[in-house]
Amino acid sequence: MAKGRPQLQSGKRIKKIDARFTEDEYNLILSLEQTLGISKTELLRRKVLNNAGTTIINAKELIINLDNIFAEMGRVGNNINQLAKHANTLKLQGAMSPLIIEQFDSHFLKYLQLQQQLEISLRKVIRLVGK
Q1: What is the DSSP string of 1-12?
Q2: What is the distance between the alpha carbons of residues 9 and 6, in angstroms, rounded to a whole number?
Q3: Which of 42, 75, 96, 126 could in theory staple to 38 by disulfide, Cβ–Cβ 3.0 to 4.6 A?
Q4: What is the pLDDT of residues 58-107, one digit of tens each?
Q5: Among 51-55, 97-101, 113-117, where is mean pLDDT lowest?
Q6: Residue 54 confidence (pLDDT)
């Protein structure tokens, strides 16, 4: 009786391809291996054999980054709403402070920058996934 894993009857990988890479290319492969959490062999196999025109995306990292952007946009949006409410109250009282206007402008500018950053990131993702 044989011990260990049963012998594969089909699909056994018996062919080998040797490839040489520059130091920069190899470092990029190592970086992708660590980032994506898959072996160099599996990375190359997927890139070459599985729909070679597509790009491998680290979904976990993408989701974390998008989640951080949305959270920050939510915080900035809350600040904008609070400042707008405070400004309306002061306006009704005839006591509008330049500091309130300055803070509102600062938060609103940050919100617009985050929104632009999100749009650029999502366009990149759409381009990569579409390949």
Answers
A1: ---SSPPPSSS-
A2: 9
A3: 42
A4: 777 777 888 888 888 888 888 888 888 888 888 888 887 788 788 878 88
A5: 51-55
A6: 57
The first and second tokens of residue 79, run together, are 């600040």
Alpha-carbon span 94 to 30, nearest angstrom: 63
- Report yes or no: 46 and 38 within 8 Å, Cβ to Cβ: yes
Residue 131 has pLDDT above 60, yes or no: no
CA distance 125 to 131: 10
H, E, C per residue of 59-128:
HHHHHHHHHHHHHHHHHHHHHHHHHHHHHHHHHHHCCCCHHHHHHHHHHHHHHHHHHHHHHHHHHHHHHH
Residue 71 and residue 92: Cα distance in Å, rounded? 32
Task: Give the global pTM.
Answer: 0.44
Q: How far is CA 12 from the centre of its chain?
A: 36
For the chain, how big is the Rg over CA atoms in Å?
26
Assign 99 to helix, strand or coil: helix
Give pLDDT, residue 56: 63
